[in-house]
């Protein structure tokens, strides 16, 4: 049975999984959850994902949620096909976990905050606050100074090979530009890195899928 992803093309967490499925050349079916009608809060959905969040996968009866855990599962299950996204070896793997942790604790909170303020609030009929938007960007800018140091010494966040940790940045990194911020282009090595990962055919395909779903 083909792997089923219950999510939505416009959801950043689903996009994180979509790009990994494409990098690993895994056949899949995206089952769009009716977010607007709160399908993700229905008893049937909560039976699979108790937090009522998207996405989750059903891989031949194996149910898994949390987008980054799903990505790790796909990269490990399909280790021998597509792009190698999980390094082997104790230290390389520890460096991947370090990079993945950097994304979750130093990138996502302020990137999400800025994107939520400027892009998502209007979709929810809420009024964006420019000051809050700028505060998030200021915090993110300070974090990206550290990214710049790391990326001045190596090609990717966990070393010289691309890993899941790099791809995890794509959804919010891309939405930041749509929110009107050029923050991912302001530091030479961050800009070089982000341009490279965001021009991958896998991400181009996800962006097309997002446009088609809009
Ligand atoms: N840590 C979770 C977060 C999932 C999440 O927050 N999904 C959003 C969409 S991107 C959602 O379902 N939000 C609705 C809600 O939390 O009620 C993951 O990475 O899968």
From TrEMBL:
This is glutathione transferase. It catalyses: RX + glutathione = an S-substituted glutathione + a halide anion + H(+). One of its GO terms (molecular function) is glutathione transferase activity. Residues 89-214 form the GST C-terminal domain. One of its GO terms (biological process) is glutathione metabolic process. Residues 1-82 form the GST N-terminal domain. InterPro entries: Glutathione-S-Trfase_C-like, Glutathione-S-Trfase_C_sf, Glutathione_S-Trfase, Glutathione_S-Trfase_N, GST_C, GST_Phi_C, Thioredoxin-like_sf. PANTHER family: GLUTATHIONE S-TRANSFERASE RHO. It holds the Pfam family GST_N. Transmembrane segments: none annotated. The lineage of its organism: Eukaryota, Fungi, Dikarya, Basidiomycota, Agaricomycotina. The keyword Transferase applies. Keywords: Transferase. Its EC number is 2.5.1.18.
